[in-house]
Design goal:
This protein is α/β, with parallel strands linked by helices. It has a single domain, classed as ATPase, nucleotide binding domain (Nucleotidyltransferase, domain 5, 2-Layer Sandwich). Helix content is about 25%, strand content about 25%. It contains 4 helices and 9 strands. Helix 3 packs across helix 4. The longest helix has 18 residues. The protein is globular, with a radius of gyration of 17 Å.
Length: about 220
């Protein structure tokens, strides 16, 4: 990709590493269509190749042309999620940019709602099973008043078992890249269009299962 020319438009950059892969998306602010959607199946090599992959989408020389950032905050692997969140926070601080942090489960929820077989209007759970630990689940619902048209009623957290969830439909929260990066770009663009503040300081990785063992309630 040719680096954006100064004054040619501001860019929205999205990062997602809450699975075994890195997703990177690039879109002009004010547009509804991504210019680049990339998927890098890096696994454990994410820490060594993050900058290489990012620069293949947007060279560092063009980073001053960024106008907004978005990052998936998890839940996901401790190292992978942390790396992209820290990078996004650093870029937002150094370039004085707004930063939208969105849970990876919310991106799956929007993909389901906008997909060919959307869930009903009521709440629904998205969950991932963790062997010998329980399930990580978040609660979602169609809500046209929210950016992207979906509300996160309960952020993802650890539960002892799926039977402990309130009686709503349950779906799989499996990430799908680069499609979930498309959802991240759309939600960030909607937040920008709504004029909502997006400071970088509150954007932190979401760790329902922390390195410190805490039993679920």
């Amino acid at each position: 990709m040719t680096a954006p020319r100064p004054g040619a438009g501001r860019w929205l950059l999205a990062l997602h590493s809450s699975s075994e892969s890195l997703g990177v998306g690039l879109q002009r602010l004010g547009s509804s269509q991504p210019e680049r959607l990339e998927h890098f199946p890096l696994g454990r090599s994410l820490s060594n190749r993050l900058f290489e992959c990012l620069e293949s989408v947007l060279p560092a020389s063009a980073w001053p042309d960024l106008g907004r950032l978005a990052v998936a905050t998890g839940p996901g692997g401790f190292t992978g999620t942390r790396l992209t969140v820290v990078l996004a926070r650093t870029l937002a601080q150094q370039l004085d940019l707004p930063l939208d942090g969105v849970s990876s489960f919310l991106l799956v929820a929007r993909r389901r709602i906008t997909g060919p077989e959307p869930p009903g209007p009521g709440p629904f759970w998205l969950m991932q099973e963790l062997p010998r630990r329980g399930v990580v689940a978040g609660l979602y619902r169609l809500d046209p008043t929210q950016p992207g048209g979906v509300a996160e009623l309960e952020a993802p957290r650890l539960h002892r078992a799926v039977e402990d969830l309130a009686d709503f439909p349950v779906g799989n929260a499996q990430a799908l890249l680069p499609e979930d990066v498309r959802q991240l770009l759309a939600i960030s663009e909607a937040i920008a269009a709504g004029g909502r503040a997006a400071p970088w300081q509150p954007v932190l990785p979401l760790y329902p299962t922390s390195p410190v063992e805490v039993l679920p309630c």
